[in-house]
User: Fold these one by one.
Assistant:
Number 1:
Amino acid sequence: MKRFENKVVLVTGGTRGIGQACAALFAREGAKVAICGRDAATATAAAGAMEGDVHGYGCDIGDVESVKSLIDGVIAELGTIEILVNNAGITRDGLLMRMKDTDWDDVLRTNLNSAFYTCRAAARSMLKNRYGRIINLTSVVGMHGQGGQTNYAAAKAGIIGFTKSYAQEVGSRNITVNAVAPGFIGTDMTADLGEKALETVLDRVPLKRAGTVEDVAEGVAFLASDAAAYITGEVLCIDGGLGM
Ligand code: NDP
């Protein structure tokens, strides 16, 4: 028996990076997996490229109506949602005094409002089943801050408060809500960092390397598994010790 045999999993933003690694792992371990990205064709292609039962949806995760359609679509096609990974995210870095309103709003709605929209829309199905595993992607930046990322840090810190609060609301229904806080992981999101800046960051990482998307996916899968049934409201740092 595989670890997630027949479980229905939704990974937001599973078209690439950490989300793609999470989706691929769940699918390899027997789950029916839904992923989404902003463009439906891209999401469908990404789903088709993965081994196992993976379905792609187009959705702007920061738009409430788009999320409602996503959740309705996944439930109509796969029957339910048992595991929800709120992974989709963006950065729009800049110093606060020069930050545009759109850079603030886009980061907040994509990284924080999205979790509210998905959790609320998926709640009925999870509460009815008296089962749910929710894993929200935060960041070490949400715990420690980072100059040039006030918008992103605010969203990711918000995710931690959201996680702990929602965990208290739904614990009695056998729904766990946890967060994963990656440090520096090699994906498109971090690809623009210059060589010198990368060296400086990695120098601060006790394990002396960037994390891989698989490092993060393993932590997400653990929190979604039966082995983590008594863990809720936690923040699991997967950062090579960066945030210590
Ligand atoms: P990537 O930039 O590699 O991937 C981002 C994913 O989010 C893509 O699949 C993208 O899909 C999706 N996405 C972005 N905006 C939207 C939107 N409006 N609607 C739907 N999907 C969207 O990011 P990572 O894999 O690096 O990051 C994943 C998560 O981990 C994020 O929440 C990030 O903040 C967090 N994190 C990452 C770290 C890192 O070092 N990489 C460190 C700490 C946290 P598409 O482009 O197809 O729309």
Number 2:
Amino acid sequence: MNAQTDNLLQENRKFKPSAEFSARAVADSTRYERAANDRLGYWADTARKRLTWDTDFTQVLDWSEAPVAKWFADGKVNAAYNALDRHVENGLGDRVAIHFEGEPGDTRTYTYSQLTTAVKQAANAFESLGVAKGDRVAVYLPMIPEAVITMLACARIGAIHSVVFGGFSADALRSRIDDAQAKLVVTADGTWRRGKPSALKPAVDEALAKEGHSVQNVLVVKRNGQDVAWNDSLDKWWAETIDTASAEHTAVGHEAEHPLFVLYTSGTTGKPKGIIHTTGGYLVQAAATHRDTFDLHPESDVFWCTADIGWVTGHSYVTYAPLINGATQVMYEGTPDSPHQGRWWEIIEKYGVTILYTAPTAIRTFMKWGRSIPDSFDLSSLRVLGSVGESINPEAWMWYRDVIGTNNGKNGERKDHPTPIVDTWWQTETGAHMIAPLPGVTATKPGSAQTPVPGITVDVVDEMGVSVGNGEGGFLVIRDPWPGMLRGIWGDMDRYKDTYWSRFEGMYFAGDGAKRDEDGDIWLLGRVDDVMNVSGHRLSTTEIESSLVAHPYVAEAAVVGAKDETTGEAVVAFVILQITPPEGEDVVATLRAHVGKDIGPIAKPRHILVVPELPKTRSGKIMRRLLKDVAEGREVGDATTLADNTVMTQIAESMRG
Ligand code: PRX
């Protein structure tokens, strides 16, 4: 194992919540006890508190077909009704649901009532395009309100959305469309990126250029007004289709186990996995954790999760949980540095954001840009700060607290009580937070996600599956089924069982290394499999290797994630060429572009090194560990198991050359 058990993570600083914060907090410490004493009872109560059910459930959990769980199975519930209609029925129709801020500075505000109307219209329009319950809808949109409207309209009619991040290529989009057999694609002409229009529709056109796809219609939102190619047999403008549809639509309850969405994520093989989430359990855990982890007071808070809807964080904490909880949220289309490096802080000041949820890579970027930028904005409204996607190193945690969490105005005023910081560990597969402090209860600790959320049983085990003691490291597992857990991999249940349930008997294997410190708090140590984490985005080494070897120049390839100060990890590839490239050809640039086209710009290797050989064991396995040493500029570790131990010398020489 390479769970870095030798990593001596030690942290003596602890920050107790202020008495004021705890007094107002939605969750107190009794929640842990209550959940531990009667886990299923706790989830049943939570399910009834957080959601309005069309049909109440009689059974909480059915684990008889483990590892496929059924939660609240005979209950019926409609996600869109819970996110929208019921708030309007409860007199909250005028509350702002979404403050949208476009990158060029255009804004739109949707109240709950307006968002409900928009979703009803979209639901009617989708139905008139032949989309029915159980059909799949691919969503390839930027961070604009139509993304949320599309997802909720699908959920309303029981169609299953499959959101594909806009940074993925045409090829990646097509393979996801094919795998899910999507009937409808919803996209936009483009978006704005660093002040310039950036296109999206051409990727859809390219994806669908080859015959044999399942798509019957493509709906196109006009976002940046650029010219687009038009295919009369497929394409329809959003405005002409949705805005003219009827605003009357009655939501019916869907079975709790009806699939809500499929979201593709990288695994340890070349093929991305379509993670399946169902309706009831997923919504319960997303809503409950959103409320507890962020201490949400929906009547007064302004929540901002900076994640894109192309990732699970955007699903759970942009589209579903905030709206189910009746909160007001901010949605921002662009990058943090457009048109200036203070854009996020300006947005926080403008909308009075109270809860910010973002990734360590962003925090480290802001650290690099310097504190004078956030210091010149009024961030006094902030009261909870969240982190997600990778471990937050203690330096970044302290900066987040000291610079962002104590800012009490532009004049350098500081808060008496810095805002609590909640580091949240979870995965696409878990659906919602699994390990996170409760901000009004936990004495927080820089760098550690600390404790499982109430109702969740997480453990750290050794190679044999035995719990490790405090101060020891091992593998992170989840012992009991949880409401938001994935229900399988689209079209491949064997892979589901194999990937998550075969490593340790009866336990879910998360793929992360972890350690318990002397207080029993959990520290995440990174992936122990072939998955990389670049800027909080999951990438598979094998997927990038497959892409590289598919290029005619390449005979063999090995990809590793090398430590990077800002992005966490950076993709580094080692390739052996099988031909001599044409004179003047920039092989590295060609291969980077090839990976960009195959998978998407986010997967482009930072460095590609052409080497004469790759280090392999006698059984032919590439020793990535040694390549990681090279990529990180370290002395190469134990190479005695190499079939040919001159290889590493050759690699080192080719690097110098
Ligand atoms: O390695 C862990 C890391 O991100 C992986 C899950 O990636 P994904 O499915 O894309 O979901 C990301 C957002 C939930 C995990 O296996 N990870 C996520 N959050 C943390 C983390 N590692 C350490 N600390 C975290 N808070």
